[in-house]
Amino acid sequence: MITLNSFTIKHKNSARLSDDDGRALFLRYCTLCHLAPDPASLTKTIWESHVLPVMASRMGIVYPNYDPLKGLSAEERAVVAKHNIIPADPFCSQSEWAKIKDYIINNAPDSAQAEEKRADRDQPLTQFLREDVQLDNKAPSLITGIKYNTTTKTLWIGNYYNQILNWQYGKGVTKKISTGSPVVDFNFHQNNTYVTEIGKLYPTELSIGAYAQVNDTTVSPILQQLHRPVSTRINDLNNDGVPEIVVCRFGNKTGGLSLFKKKKNGSYAEDELLSLPGAIKCYIKDMDGDGKKDIVAMFSQGDESVYIFYQKDNLKFKAKRVLRFPPNYGTTDMLLVDYNNDGLTDIVTVHGDNADYSYIPKNYHGIRLHINQGGNTFKEKFFFPMYGVTRVLAEDFDKDGDIDFVATAFFPEFGKLINESFIYLENVDKDKFSFKAYTQKRGVPIKTLTLEKADVDGDGDMDIITGNFAQSPGPVPPELDQQWKSAKYGLSIFYNQLYQPKKQ
Fold it and tell me: What letters, b where the CB count within 10 A reaches 16 and e where it falls short, cover 109-135?
């Protein structure tokens, strides 16, 4: 038995096999597309049944009894062929592939077990009081996006049923708007509201997403035929009075980060900044202090990385990768913060996607804080392990002068650690990166794809909002699955008890 951090893996044979030739080939070919993962990071079964077949197809190798195009429509197959996702000619010989496969399997564990002792680190959550809010009669609740407009004190909610709901404290749902597809992101810019419609929530090669402006009770598309857009920013990047639109096209096997520039006739021209699937989050910020607005973007879905796109001239950008992670990390979220108040932008990353090929607990899932060492060189200084974590927020929630974190896990450990689907991390010593973890044992566990902060009740402290998403892309205990699907509420609001709320 080998203990890797807080992750227990078991081998049937006490001695680990090694194959220098296989390892060399593994590093040679597997780093062509992404950072090489540790073979010990997944079990033998996961490698053999799920990951190796995909790897083989991407290297042009035919894997027995595996069809990489299964389930794809003719239109999607054409997209895959156009982008040469599955090469016609193999990258390596069959004998080389056999050595790569043997090296991986020989060095992979037989099983993976969650470290249940993690529950001992959690204290009862008392600073926040949870209140579940019913929005409508639709069941199950499938909230896909939430964003709070601080100007109008309105929570904007998107759901899988192609609706936008407006909700206000003390009033409830005040408006419903139909959309073309589920809304996953909102922007508030110059008194206008813009929405990102993903097109199809689940993996597809079809470009049927859109970016639209809300006009009272209707939406008007601005950009169409986007490939699963998930995060968008509208900003005047070159200060000419005309805002540009930056779109993270998450896609599936294809995707990318695109800049859309408005032309004189009102239409938009696309400039693809990076063609890479998994673009999941972006921010606009001057990262080098030259007075020009840059773009910080996170990519998952393979070559998991964070890039800074430095604006060198009028809407001309130069990309630099500043963080990179193995593809099995399952990167899901990113924040920009100045953790240590030194005037430099630090980066928080979250890794916990457990849906694609491997439904096992992973010790490397969690929250990572990367401190800017100067010149946008980042060093990981803090790691909080958390199974299946998907979203994170940073805020001085207790008003003591340092940054605390809140995180949610869409893929938590479903046994003794199920309450870690929502964790509050109180910063107790920022210089030592020491945090105290709190969870809440109450009612149905949190199940959310969304996380937002706002002073919902207007009492001067920051509250936390999650949107219930009851469907699960992977195996879930039947009793728990039924609890989520039968829950009547759409929102869970954690009211901060630091101050007393205003009376309604």
Answer: beebebbeebbebbeebebbebebbeb
The candidate with the shortest Cα–Cα distance to 131, out of 165, 185, 167, 175, is 167
| DSSP state letters, 97-115 | HHHHHHHHHHTS-SEEE--
**127 confidence band (pLDDT: 50, 70, 90):** very high
Between CA 86 and CA 354 the distance in angstroms is 24
Count of positions (residues) in the chain: 504
Calpha distance 365→363 (Å, rounded): 6
Task: Give the strand order in the sheet containing 7-10.
Answer: 2-4, 7-10, 111-113
Note the pLDDT tens digit of each residue in 455-502. 999 999 999 999 999 999 888 999 999 999 999 999 999 999 998 655
> Is-contact 352 420, C-beta < 8 A?
no
* C-alpha pair distances (Å), 110 with each of 6, 175, 365, 400: 17, 53, 19, 46
**Residue 84 and residue 55: Cα distance in Å, rounded?**
14
The pTM (predicted TM-score) of the whole model is 0.93
Q: Are 248 and 229 a contacting pair, CB within 8 Å? A: yes
DSSP element (H, E) containing 95? helix 94-106
Distances (CA, A) of 101 to 34, 48, 68: 17, 9, 18
The per-residue pLDDT for range 343-363, each reduced to its tens digit, is 999 999 999 998 877 789 999
The answer, yes or no, to whether the previous bond of 182 is cis (omega within 30 of 0) is: no
Q: Which helix (H) or strand (E) holds 438?
A: strand 434-439
Distance CA 467, CA 415 (A): 22
In 3D space, the residue among 356, 395, 349, 217 whose CA is nearest the CA of residue 277 turns out to be 356
Partnered with residue 284 across adjacent β-strands are 295
Token duo for residue 487: 């829950």
**Nearest-10 Cα torsion for 154, 157, 163, 165:** -30
Question: Please, what's the largest Cα pairwise distance for the chain?
Answer: 73
**Within 13 Å and on the Cβ side, how many CA atoms surround 411?**
26
What is the three-state SS of 449-468? EEEEEECCCCCCCCEEEEEE
Question: What confidence category does residue 386 fall into, taking pLDDT thresholds of 50, 70 and 90?
Answer: very high
Backbone φ and ψ of 370, nearest 5°? -110, 115
